[in-house]
Amino acid sequence: MSTIAQNIDILARRISEMEESQTLAMARKSRELKEQGVDVINMNLGEPDFKTPLFIQEAAKKAIDDGHFYYTPVSGIAPLRQAIAEKLKRENQLAYSADQIVVSTGAKQSIANVMLSIIDKDDEVIIITPYWVSYVGIVQLAQGTPVFVEGKLENDYKATAQDVKAAITSKTKAVIFSSPCNPTGSVFSEKELREIAEVIAPHPQITVIADEIYEYINFGESHFSIGRVESLKDRVVTINGLSKGFAMTGWRLGYAACPAVIAKACDKIQGQVTSGANSITQYAAVAALNGSRKEVGEMKTAYEKRGKLIKSLLDEVEGFKCNTPQGAFYVFPDISDFYGKKYEGKTIANSEDFSMFLLETAHVAVVMGDAFGAPSCIRLSFATSEELIKKAIERISTAVEKLS
Q: Would you say the pTM of this structure is higher than 0.85?
């Protein structure tokens, strides 16, 4: 390898300051063990274990047969942007026009587009914790300053309106959160979101970024979008996509519904970075959004059953303190009771140590809570079979009994 290739000084500061996604890092370590023949149960990645519904697959095949092989408009093909606008009006009571929709290669790119469009150096972005792992990295990439507002376990990991109000300053440019939440499975109620909107409304410089990627995996009351609140309706960016609800992770398609000025900025940024999303995926997405929600509902029912199962099993393991997931497919137990305990001379000092202990001893892959701004926790995905859930928790229970 050449000297210049080894020289870290050639890299931009933003790269050295950016942390690797810990969900992907744990996946890599898990994969390495599997390659060595170890039977690892993966509960680390947030990926549905269901197949994409057949009618969506067929739409993709038809798009190929119809010859849709060419570059698409940067913000997405017209039929898809119209389908998204109609979906948002029909299901979310949100009034976005098609020209306010920007289709991207996943919701992660959608969030990045928005942050790069509205954040200048040292602008503050309020991030409700626990948060999805990439929020902080994206804010930092935009040279913004993350400001964390903690959602506590006793309040189902949800920050209150007063918590948000206390964090707002003259530098606050955005607030971002997910509901249903990755990693906690918590869901903000209409009442809670209206209260949060009320404290943000008097600050016209603030844009609210509502990550609703798990919208269809909601086990309780119907999903409520903060963009419905009249006082904020022109200052909300609604992020969504097809990865989770339609089991289309590898298809890579997300979208942002934005105020017009932000939509134009996102189109400008994306035009310089990736241009339009995959053409075949876009035509498949039209079919998904305009089609039946039968399979979506069936998947949600399965996730809800699994969520109840894993919660009940973890409640029987001493040292785990869990909330009850109300959506998504994660449980996020506090495991700080194990800190200071030892196994084979090694002390569990933090959630990374505990996660590695589970991987190496129980052969169960989880994600450390530090990745989500909650160093006392770990995240387990229950997007897997009930059989594997039972087997994983049995292994974890056996492993933690070895700690002293």
A: yes
